[in-house]
Amino acid sequence: MLFYNGDLEIMAKPRLFIGSSVEGLPVARAIKAELDFDMDVTVWSQGVFKLSHSPLEDLSTVLENSDFASFVFLPEDKLEIRGEEKTTVRDNVVFELGLFYGKLGRDRVSYIMPRGYDLHLPSDLTGVTGGTFESPNTNMQASVGSYCEQIRMQVRMHKINFPATGRFGPNIFADGVSMLKEKCSFKANVPQGNELIIRISNIDKKTSYGYDVSSFGDWVVEPYDESKNEQLAKLIGPSNSDMCLRIHAEGNINIQAYEKDTPTPILSKNVLLIP
Questions:
Q1: How far apart are CA 75 and CA 193, in angstroms?
Q2: What string of pLDDT tens digits covers the 275 residues of the chain?
Q3: Do 225 and 94 reside in the same domain of the chain?
């Protein structure tokens, strides 16, 4: 899902998948309602599983199209361990969490469970972020509010961000920047495990710009591709490298920014360059 940020810039929302049992759907829907403004949220019941597909096939598709995942744990099953009966979570919900854990990593997957219940959880879940909600309650969305803030913190921790300015002037990626003169900063803060790909395209024929080689830092800049009229640059995290772009001749360019393995740009804007 895309949303507009000003007249020219388009940003992509992070994508969250919510898994649960049928009984956990009210909690899942409350999480979706609380996070809908911040994220592109899909609950498992919203057309994820197709009649003609196996669940694993559909889960594989969802895995490839999710940035974060949340799971609702409820005390629904009984398990006997060393002669002692334990209350536990539906095995398919734990299995799905494991799939997302393996694909997205520990810091992008979390679960929520009712407060005050002694649920038996697999020891492998140690380190996965867990939250709680009050059950029963009269306002489920309010009850999951603290947990949803934990998810927002997860997103902020992994989010690539673009400072307003850098060592060389205004940052070409910053909000509201649509015109630049003489020189500017090419700056991004990329967290560990993430990667930023910049695509400069639709470059006016009269436009001319270049980079100060001494300022490259961690940036990797590919040569201009005349056949596609584009140039690519890459920054692998963790890094906050600030590169200097110098403008030699006036013209318009289009800039798109992509996160690692994400086909939808996290930023898309047109910029006028003036020497």
A1: 34
A2: 444 444 344 456 889 999 999 999 999 999 999 999 999 999 988 777 776 677 778 888 888 888 899 999 998 878 777 777 777 888 899 899 999 998 888 889 999 999 988 777 777 776 777 899 998 888 999 999 999 999 999 888 888 999 999 999 999 999 999 999 999 999 999 988 789 999 999 999 999 999 998 889 999 999 999 999 999 999 999 999 999 999 999 999 999 999 887 788 889 999 999 99
A3: no
In this structure, are 13 and 147 located in the same domain?
Answer: yes
Q: Which is the catalytic residue, given 23, 34, 80, 96?
A: 96
Element (H, E) at 196: strand 195-201
Do 241 and 193 share a structural domain? yes
* Co-location of 98 and 211 in the same domain: no
Tell which residue, 129, 65, 75, 134, has the closest CA to residue 103.
Answer: 65
Structure tokens at 57: 């096939």
96 is catalytic: yes
